[in-house]
């Protein structure tokens, strides 16, 4: 083991190219993972922020907010179902928004896309609905408390009274407003889709303590006869794109990890061939097989770790630029899991050469 | 007690259908402070005898005792330990680890077992005695042939073996250098009262030893 | 030549691993290339393959078709802008379609036949001429959108019959139906009985011959308040999400190319270094350098060739696996271009090995007497 480390220190150049390739693969892996997390996170924030257990859509909506519509009678009926402790309407309008400066002029020419969320039940991340004229705004919009945001075609002005995090819907920052404001914005943006007061796209349900949410979901659908109730997790999975993206990125990330393994295998196959003589000497001098293999594996771990650090460093350095251009979101979990995966694949790759090292006959060096 | 006893050792190499008898009824004792040269032409079985004595090869027949213990009973783990602690090797080709310095090449065998508390001192002393005191931090690349040979001898002596096995130490060197190396080895062994078997095909080198055993076609004759 | 082939045969594991690594990387590159192409085609194909030179959004729509809504007056006002030959409403609704007994998310477009905004990539049948007829995307033909199929626009229950198939004219990565404007109005009215009227989403504009569409677009945005006019290609490029997708894939692809180059480079470099003693011997016995270089490139070519085969095979496999959500169209020409780029990268990557190879000196074989050891 010590020998492996010594060699790394004395001959870093020998490991440079493999380390470089692995560093680029790390870059690729973290970028892919961060992109996936950014895409999924930005799509699902609205639902993940909820403290409710269930979400109720109309039964023909197929778990889509846009397609769903619940009238006040239905929402009231949901509130009466046994096991429901609270119910509140939820509606989202995807519109343009401008952050205004002190003079009431738009800060930039760009119109930002936002998800205006009309809601009744507080979420984990968001307090109870603000009064008309005010909003809680997702920090990704870049507006701070006290700013005024003009939303929708009518440029309805709301004052930011609180910043919330990670509440985006379909990659658009959440602007959380009272139901009245939401209705007004929707009517202006899509007169064809305007909703009467009290009508919502969906309803959120908090279940009573100790009751199985699935049971309550079934009861709700029975009681209304016109709804389809999902757990929040199921609703997240049903969001457009979420499963497809996870699947597609899964293939790409998986294949990239395999590439890591193959590259490591290739590299160690190359260097162990060169060193069969050396391994023979070490064994003849009394090093155990395990010791020689451990030294190889140590090298694999170190090369992977260094490559990981380089890749991670590069992506951190670039993350400022990246975040502006693509929905990239690097979490600690993603970084750690990539690092662990990299080390594992690299070790697996190096072990492919363990057999060859193991088989080196110490008697072969003499004579 | 004898450092090495070979009793009726036979070694047959099988390659395909062919059988090559490399050693035949070899019987040999080396006393605990004796230096023996093994002299024979190429292909006569010298390296084979040495490998068997050092636990690198197992004999087809016969027994091998080193320091009184029959190494034929050893499993592979015990053989590994045996090679590390009981014998020292100097190979026909010097075989230093290329990325380790002279000092590290000597110390490397100590590292295989648990750490020896006196390892550093010992390495210093060996370097000093071998005339390598100021070459300790050089890589093998930066050493002369003779210096490399001396490093290899230092490595063989590091774990204070009771038996040192040396294969053709002078074959790569000119006569003058060869004699110097031979002298060095013999002095080192004598100073430590360590038994040694030195393989050579050069009759001139035999005068340094206590005794010479000749080998032809796998048969020993004193 | 023979020597280099023999070397591959002797070192099957190493060359196998290399071929595998290159194959996987080629797969990654191809897969993502195909994904990108298909995604973008499927995302904005409808916008790209319609006849309007300029499309006009509501200013607030942020260049999103789904977010754009305009009044009929705007259509008229746009028609009056100098340089505009014709202006027609273009409608789009994201809706639920029932085809083959299955419910799917889909888009419905309404265009004025003969006017700007007509689909241009008809490949089978004809364009719809009356309400109740529709053109569908060829990519969805097998899923209940084939010629003669009846598709129900679920909310409202209006039925349309597919009379024509268009090529790569989908929208928002879902099945897309093209209806006449009247047909579109009927369908939407059935779906949204409470809505006051059916508004156009966009204005499709044909510019007069000789006019620069980009200039006309600027004029329209300036002349008609609340509008944002873009040329067709700008509209495609500016569709929300398109730029991000492009940038992301571009980054991923360039990284993958770099890795291909590096892996090939390090492999052949190490290999060349390892056999430099043998190489100088070969040079010493009179084998010309040309022969050795040819051997090197023969090996590179073989490895890349095997990698290309593996990668292409894997992509064909993966395309079948993913095909459900997003029909992957694998264009032979694109694949060939990608493979060409891989070959080029491999060529560059092997330059390091080539340099090392050219340094091999026949005198090395005799100059350094073997002192034994590994050093
Ligand atoms: N692994 C092996 N398989 C088959 N035959 C072997 C093997 N090793 C050695 N031999 C044969 O055994 C005989 C003795 O070999 P050995 O290596 O002991 O000779 P040596 O005396 O050391 O020769 P040299 O002076 O050339 O080193 C030779 O005929 C050799 O060909
Ligand atoms: Mg020999």
Describe the structure.
The complex is a heterotrimer of chains A (367), B (222) and C (375). Chain A contains eleven helices and nine strands. Chain A has 367 residues and is α+β, with helices and mostly antiparallel strands. Chain A has two domains: 167 residues, no CATH class; 166 residues, no CATH class. Chain A has a six-stranded mixed barrel. Chain B has 222 residues and is α/β, with parallel strands linked by helices. Chain B has a six-stranded mixed sheet, sandwiched between helices. With 375 residues, chain C is α+β, with helices and mostly antiparallel strands. Chain C has two domains: 172 residues, no CATH class; 189 residues, no CATH class. The relative contact order of chain C is 0.18. The two termini of chain C are 30 Å apart. The interface between A and C is large, with 58 and 64 residues. The complex binds adenosine-5'-triphosphate and magnesium ion (MG).
Largest sheet of chain B: 6 strands, mixed
The string of secondary-structure elements of chain A, in order, is: HHEHEEEEEEHEHEHHHHHH
- Read across the widest sheet of chain A, the strand sequence of neighbours is 2-3-7-4-6-5
- For the termini of chain A, the CA-CA separation is 28 Å
Extended strand count of chain B: 10
* Adjacency order of strands in the biggest sheet of chain B: 6-7-8-3-9-10
Number of helices of chain B: 6
* Count of individual helical segments of chain A: 11
Number of strands of chain A: 9
Q: Could you give a quick summary of the protein structure above?
A:
The complex is a heterotrimer of chains A (367), B (222) and C (375). Chain A contains eleven helices and nine strands. Chain A has helices at residues 2-10, 12-48, 72-79, 179-189, 213-224, 232-237, 242-274, 276-284, 289-325, 332-351, 354-359, and strands at 54-58, 84-100, 112-119, 134-138, 148-151, 156-164, 174-177, 202-207, 227-231.
